[in-house]
Write a structure and sequence with these properties.
This protein has 417 residues and is α+β, with helices and mostly antiparallel strands. 41% of the residues lie in helices and 18% in strands. The strands form three sheets. Strands 2-6-7-1-5-4-3 form a seven-stranded antiparallel beta sheet. The longest helix has 35 residues. The radius of gyration is 28 Å and the shape is globular.
């Protein structure tokens, strides 16, 4: 089992300067390795019977492909030629090359997203991949070639876990470490059980559940945009690469970090609230990157629905609540009571079924349909009386939801309160 704990560290002035030098060295080595990779491909993409219109760096035919192991084995020779590399721990340099080739492998799998050169300040993290002993001693953490660094250990390391690796991250708010903890303990994953609810997310209201709970919409970027706008205007007036420009840039970065921290804190609290409501939660399997390309893309990105779904799964796994995904197609266009299609526009905020006369808020109806699909997707794991409970809480008889398919319209009638 692996756990990631994030702590804030407070390196002194000398350690901060050393970390900044390491990050810049890693950036240069990353770009050098990427340049070698691109030169090897450019020297072999030109046909043998004609020359390229642009100048290309020619490599010999027997020069091997600069793979991860090839570039990693060249690091000792590079340290002799560039003594600057000796100041960085060797394993940190190796993981930096590993990062490049992970991006290269990812590009080959999906066909786009070729690795790019890193500009000054774009490399903001470094990884210490392994430790022989526990580096955390009291309120300090021991890092290779850096020494003991003060750490805010706001929560202790659980018993039975060892420190697997440590990643140091630089943010505008300060320095952080992401500690990966490992244990042989295998915790069983939660299964569908108990009370089940469906969750539908949106922009007008952040989410609605099948039980009728509605969380008001939160716009984190919009509420903080006025301050960000002022800081960006000040930044635009500064001379680039000057000290004043760098100070103004850090203030803009701090404001972005502040917005991101507020959003993440809110989503964690909301995830815990949902896990306290039910034992099983069903969400849509929608790709929110597609929603972000529409005319409401800015608000969709601000809401961070994809991040919230990941947080909800993490919190649910931690608290023993099952979180499953269901098909998202047509959830807002289906009546959760009689399961027929009821077309609605975006401006229609009330669901009214002309067939069974079921009326409820549009988002709540979509959440109830999500719950129905979740129970159908995971059959035999929930009690049968849980199936109709999502419509029952809104005043509809639960049996109508499942008997309607075998009953004529004249015998069903309007749902009673």
């Amino acid at each position: 089992m692996l756990l990631n704990y994030t702590y804030r560290i407070k390196p002194d002035q000398q350690q901060t300067q050393l970390l900044d030098e390491w990050l810049e060295t890693l950036r240069v080595s990353y770009n050098y390795a990427l340049r070698e990779l691109k030169d090897w491909m450019a020297s072999r993409k030109c046909p043998i019977d004609r020359c390229s219109l642009e100048s290309e760096y020619i490599m010999s035919a027997n020069y091997p492909f600069p793979s991860y192991h090839q570039q990693q084995n060249n690091l000792p020779k590079a340290k002799q030629e560039f003594p600057r590399l000796k100041s960085v721990p060797s394993q940190v340099l190796q993981t930096n090359i590993r990062r490049l080739h992970d991006a290269w492998d990812f590009f080959r799998q999906r066909g786009y997203g070729f690795p790019r050169f890193k500009k000054v300040g774009q490399v903001k993290s470094l990884l210490f991949p392994q430790f022989k002993t526990n580096p955390i001693t009291g309120w300090q953490i021991q890092l290779p070639k850096l020494g003991k660094v003060e750490i805010n250990l706001h929560r202790p390391v659980p018993d039975g876990f060892i420190v697997k690796q440590v990643r140091v991250v630089k943010k505008a708010m300060g320095w952080f470490v992401v500690i990966t903890l490992y244990s042989d303990i295998e915790i069983p994953k939660p299964f569908p059980h108990g009370h089940a609810i469906g969750v539908d997310v949106g922009l007008l209201c952040y989410l609605a559940t099948s039980d009728g709970f509605v969380e008001p919409g939160r716009k984190f970027f919009k509420t903080e945009h006025r301050r960000l706008k002022v800081l960006q205007r000040r930044l635009a007036k500064k001379q680039k690469r000057s000290k004043n420009y760098d100070q103004a840039r850090r203030k803009v970065e701090k404001q972005h970090n502040h917005i991101a921290f507020k959003r993440k804190d809110y989503q964690f609290k909301l995830a815990h609230k949902l896990c306290a409501m039910a034992d099983t939660i069903f969400v849509e399997d929608i790709d929110f990157r597609t929603m972000a390309k529409g005319f409401l893309g800015k608000h969709t990105i601000d809401a961070g629905f994809g991040q919230f779904r990941s947080i909800l799964k993490f919190v649910g796994n931690k608290r023993g609540v099952f979180v499953g995904e269901v098909d998202h197609r047509g959830t807002s266009q289906t009546c959760p009571n009689c399961r027929i299609t009821v077309k609605k526009e975006l401006s229609d905020r009330i669901h009214y079924c002309p067939e069974c006369h079921y009326e409820v808020d549009r988002d709540v109806a979509a959440a109830q349909e999500i719950c129905n699909r979740g129970i159908e997707t995971y059959p035999g794991t929930l009690e049968k009386q849980e199936i109709g409970s999502q419509v029952e809480v809104s005043g509809v008889m639960c049996l109508d939801n499942w008997r309607r398919g075998a009953m004529p319209n004249c015998e069903v009638g309007k749902p009673t309160m």
